[in-house]
Design brief:
Blueprint: H1 5-14, E1 18-24, H2 40-43, H3 48-51, H4 56-68, E2 70-77, H5 89-94, E3 97-101, H6 106-122, E4 126-135, E5 139-145, E6 156-162, E7 169-174, E8 184-193, E9 199-208, H7 214-220, H8 223-237, H9 243-264, E10 274-277, E11 280-283
Parallel strand pairs: 1-2, 2-3
Antiparallel strand pairs: 4-6, 4-8, 5-7, 8-9, 10-11
Helix pairs in contact: 1-4
Length: 284
């Protein structure tokens, strides 16, 4: 198979964004990381950080795709096991996808491949995406988590492509007391190039109440939103931090949150050392 950088070069010469569809018939490998030797040796290793670190050429390819506004989609046809950071890193950072057909069963894989290819080509996509998050006084953007290459400013995000599957989690912190009467305002400006070559901008503004009373805070929060945020943040940190550290940090934060709810908002008497979780009491 040809190098994945060749079709990207054609987009660069033409000066336009698009989708790079790369078809590979053997497990990709990279020098020191031989993905074709089976996945069992990878995931039983104690070197979690080095295990999931992508090769340098994968990082460089992802950065080139983002600069050009191209998503990378890998269609892999191989009966051998595939593991390691490649081949998923470049598609992950560019809004693409990995489609693997391991059994190579004629009719079954043919129908699945046809369905995946049609969905990949037909999905309405925005290219060369830039997102700017603005907040009112006293609030600041302290982090953003998702499938993109982080930059120096978490409030300004660049993505190769965006579609209806794209999801980002933004973390806000306040460095000074907030005005309870005026609340806070969050505005997101999203600029992208459509498939017709038109540059479009969408602006979303959201006004939220703020309160110094924890009862109001818990009453207006959504458990699904909190769960989504924590999952997205932990998932993005898996590549750079040990899993055990992430588990301990997540457990500490959730326990502190539930303890705060019990102390300030719960009307049910609980014994010392217990925290209410989903209607059940558990020891902490």
């Amino acid at each position: 198979s040809a190098s994945p950088s060749l079709p990207l070069t054609q987009f660069q010469v033409a000066g336009c964004p698009g989708k790079v569809l790369f078809f590979h018939t053997a497990p990709p490998s990279d020098g020191s990381l031989n993905c074709s030797s089976g996945s069992s040796g990878f995931f039983s290793s104690s070197k979690e950080k080095s295990l999931f670190q992508p090769p340098e050429h994968c990082v460089a390819l992802a950065q080139e795709c983002v600069a050009q506004g191209c998503s990378f989609h890998l269609f892999l046809f191989s009966q051998q096991a595939v593991g390691g950071a490649w081949p998923g890193h470049t598609p992950y950072l560019t809004g693409g996808g990995v489609y693997s057909y391991g059994c190579l069963q004629g009719q079954v894989d043919s129908e699945q491949f046809h369905s995946d290819l049609r969905r990949c080509v037909d999905t309405e996509t925005g290219y060369r995406v830039e997102m700017q998050v603005s907040v009112s006084k006293g609030l600041r953007v302290s982090g953003c988590f998702g499938a993109f290459t982080p930059g120096p400013d978490p409030a300004h995000i660049r993505l190769a492509t965006i579609d209806w599957h794209t999801a980002l989690a933004v973390q806000f912190t306040h460095h000074s007391p907030l005005d309870e009467e005026r609340g806070v305002v969050i505005q997101v400006a999203l600029s992208y190039t459509s498939s017709l070559g038109e540059r479009r901008t969408r602006v979303h503004s959201l006004s939220l109440r703020c309160s110094r009373h924890l009862v109001d805070t818990f009453r207006n929060c959504q458990a699904e939103t909190l769960l989504t945020f924590y999952c997205k943040r932990v998932y993005c940190a898996v590549l750079t931090r040990p899993l055990q550290d992430l588990r301990d940090e997540l457990l500490t934060e959730l326990t502190a949150m539930l303890t705060c709810y019990r102390q300030h908002c719960s009307t049910t008497a609980l014994t010392h050392g217990q925290v209410r979780e989903g209607g059940k009491c558990s020891e902490t």
